């Protein structure tokens, strides 16, 4: 942009210089305009028109793109999804003819982790902003959900912090400037570098104490996590820069209590298929998700990724689900009432950062009015958790009363355009509206009275935005116009006039309307401020309703799918009678899923080696056991006839094979990383699910690793984790002969009329046949390939440990060559090579020897 710019573009340039990397939304009337490179980028992402305009004498044309103010949310969402940050620059005064350039200020910087725009937020999942403070191997982590005010810190070893980030999947992560990139499985996170000097302990404490209006952080239980506190301080500092408004809904912080939770890492969450993924819409979440509110849906997701470890807390949830299940009518009524509840956690957030509009307040009021009805429905309930929910609901009647008395039933979205406040709420406003009503009534009667006074029956009184009120007289009747009429506008077939009295009434109406809008805005902001003072009560109400919603969801799922209440105990036994996979059974015809028993403990049946054909159901069975345990400890009933669960501190999974291209890891390396993580972190309280360990490398390497892993799990006293190990290495079944806590199981198969039938039943004993060719047949391999495979298999099975020579199938036009796969008798060249003393050869002799062999092979 050249030096001879218009005042408007100069104003834009001054703001853009401060934010060179962000897209600037520059408010101009009813549009947000973007200029220069911003316009080009936005045009491409948003699919909007890119134009250009000259802004100044002899200036070059500047690229220009714009979006309507009223539809800005939709466009903001797309820009944020594309990884852009957006600076919102608003007009801070009304445009007027006397002032050519209106003032504009940056009111907000929207980044992926600081989204508060409704249209850009996913109602079913949180949107976290995280902050990392690494100090050697010890790292501090803080994460905030700005739209709800959830704020937590954690301090642990580097690998634990990174694993927690993988589970949280934050949208944005704040890291010290210059720190090496952090590899996460969640490739969608955006990293924002922060000046290192901002990671300061004293500054962080002051920021947090000011935010929570306390003199010490001891009451939040965070004093033992100094690195986490520093990370939290950086988040608050970042919000001061980006939000530029009070954030009163962020009123507490807490430290994550890992000892109270079962730990699930990101690979376990992925391997157990807890949530939908690309190409895989079915998941445990989609089965259990019967919540009626958005906040309940988010809490269910949290319960699934953070199952409980303390038996008494698990029991409270199970007892509550049981009580709801026994009272089906109450359950149905509760779910109907919960369906009337808005997203109160995010509404509280909008109050906190000053974005709640009139309809938000109305939704808040309507939701809070339902709470007494819900409390009444809970009165007969006796379970500890539901009783405490009923007792803990705070009194929000003042909020309801404020909105009821002050806000109209159908207000507009905007709070500065009038038509918000009820009649009778404010006497000054009522007087202004009465004055307008009187004036409009006078104007309405003016047409009749003037027709009578002038004798002009076609006389009309009208109004338009340009000329205001007028009296219109057609040309044939102009001679009858009274002397007090003042000419205002000439039309083709008529003249428009005004009288002094009409002009006074018009001015009264226009000034009164301006004052009404101003007064309504003032009153709305006052009401909103008073309601914001009750943010804590609203947040507590939301928390209680969310919990109740999840409990109702679990009860409904148990009712729909025939789940039973599990028994939780402190011993090591896991006994599941007729367990079912909660997702797979829903995808099959009713009653066709084959249930299976499971019995694991630390004493007699610590490790199950499970063999059987591919596609027979080994992986499904492993996941099934993991899901039943997880569901039990999150407080859900389980798909089984009965289940007794010795509480698990962590579920480890090594299931499936996939490259981690994002961080340059092969399938086998991913497999070994997951296995190493298991062997380094499992305890006697853990549950390990291993599927085909060692298959990513050669047969003997893989078998050796699988064998050693099994021995390690069995023989380490401090380890002794309960383990299900599905494998195609039938040799592992021999371990049951000398490792007392290893037991063999297989997936039953029946041969019938030359065909193989998978029975999907887990039965005692090993399996010595993988039925690979039968599986290949099911997969649709060509008939000639299957016949040839059977022929080769027969020849291989006739051998002992090694494999005989197998002649290739003749192909016309090619020399017939005999290839030895595993030759029992080495040929002459092999013998010569075996006896060759390589270390005594010169380079020239080696080349000559190579040439000699090549010549002999070519004959």
Notes on the structure:
By secondary structure, the protein is of the alpha/beta class. The chain has 5 domains: 7-110, MutS, DNA mismatch repair protein, domain I, CATH 3.40.1170.10; 128-255, MutS, connector domain (Nucleotidyltransferase, domain 5, 2-Layer Sandwich), CATH 3.30.420; 266-422 and 532-561, MutS, DNA mismatch repair protein, Chain A, domain 3; 427-522, MutS, DNA mismatch repair protein, Chain A, domain 3, CATH 1.10.1420; 567-766, 3-Layer(aba) Sandwich (Rossmann fold), CATH 3.40.50. The protein has 26 helices and 26 strands. The protein has a 6-stranded mixed beta sheet, sandwiched between helices. The longest helix has 33 residues, at 500-532. The model is unreliable at 659-664, 800-804 and 810-824 (pLDDT under 50).
